[in-house]
Specification:
By secondary structure, the chain is of the alpha+beta class. The chain contains 24 helices and 14 strands.
Length: 502
Amino acid sequence: MASPSQYGVKYAVHIISSHFGDLVAKVCECLLRRGPLTHQNIARFTEVSASQVKNCLLVLIQQNCVQAFSVEHQGGVGDAPRRSTEYMALFDNIIHRMRFPKFMAVVSQELDKECVELFQGLLQHGRLTLEKMIDRAKCGREDSTAQDATRETLSKLINARFVERCPDPEPHLSPPSEEEAPARKRTKSSKMAIEPETIEERVLAAAAPMEAKRFLIFFDTTTEEDGQKTEDSFLGVGEKRKSDAFESDKELESDGDQVLWRVNVQEFMHRFRHKACVENVRERLDGGAAVALSAMLETSRSMEKKVKTDNSVPLSINTITKRGADESYKIDLKNIIEQAQNEEVESVVLERYGRVAYRIFRLLSKANRLLETDKISDTAFVDKKEISKILCRLWKDEFLHMEKVVVTAPRQMQFLLWKVNKSTLWPHVLDEMYHAALNLNLRVAYELEKENELLNLPIEKRSGPLEKSLDCMEMLKPVDFVDIYLRSERQLKSRDEKRVVI
């Protein structure tokens, strides 16, 4: 996980500011720019009181935007090691907040409206216990009905892997041992270089619950007649129950500890990533290849541990086509994603610099090595004077990498070599995307604030040019997918009732 870029931080801060206010955004920006900090250091760098920093951190933790963890520091001479709690901003989780409408659309397509309403509550509040979910559902219902319905709805969301248990609130991050450091140094010189884990990756791995416990539910129900307490437990789809392993969990929950639940962002990112791969294969190959790839990804989705994985798990022909065969296949997700990224960046070059620059950039991208200016001119059929201007323009905008080579024999000459360095280009393009998204959000916020009085005008006063302006402003309002879904359900229900009457 690379550190967020310049405009990535600005975009994340804007999201937090628009959702939770400027004070919370100030604390979040401090963590994004400076990395993990203690409570005292946050108050010192932001010049905010300790109580306000505490409240801001509680909001960010509740909304899954900050993760706390404890670290051990070496004490002085004769002093014992001491522990301190640090707080780390989760950049990806902040950006995922802009994908909430897409999450809602997926849930509304696959599950019923009760699941959509409960899922919306989790998006709004970040994390909830079963008791809080039941309290939200009690409006207009009897207690027993609301409890049973909420348990059933939560079970559906967990079985679909749309909801998961929250991670450990404060995992302990042990310092790397002396044996691990030399091993990592040796891998740098090997062919398969392994990058060391970042602090964020180590903390998230330490906080994540076990896979078997991640989608496990224990329901404690108390009967009104005899006051006896019974416990209903079951596992999510694909999990195997192990009662002995979870005996300690039952004891903890019987003592009054309540399990917190949150939206499983990883499941949605798996789906979106797989959908993008399928569409890319459909465009490059055909519909049959896209159907086969979709079937393989659907089967292997629950077995993938990370979102950004290079290859899928091996699948046999029997698993894919339900026919007996011994061959097994893996999906090269890394290659599909790289081709999609190449096409996306090439489209940016085509729109911004023209077709000649697009042809040059595509040539260098396919070559994947340094090429001299005259070689590029001869291959792309472009005049040498014109190609030098285009190459320099792409280089200034950080789309190309340039190296100068000086030859002294028999006379001194200088050559310019050009290459598409994808390791630096992809983060640059992503930062430009964050910049564009930030500008769009700022423009929408500006227009909505500018026309706030017009939007609140009664309908009878809207006429003439003012009505057209208001219609344009209505299009800038955020879309409520839940409201649209519930309205469509009511319309279909009333239409069915009319047909029955007729």
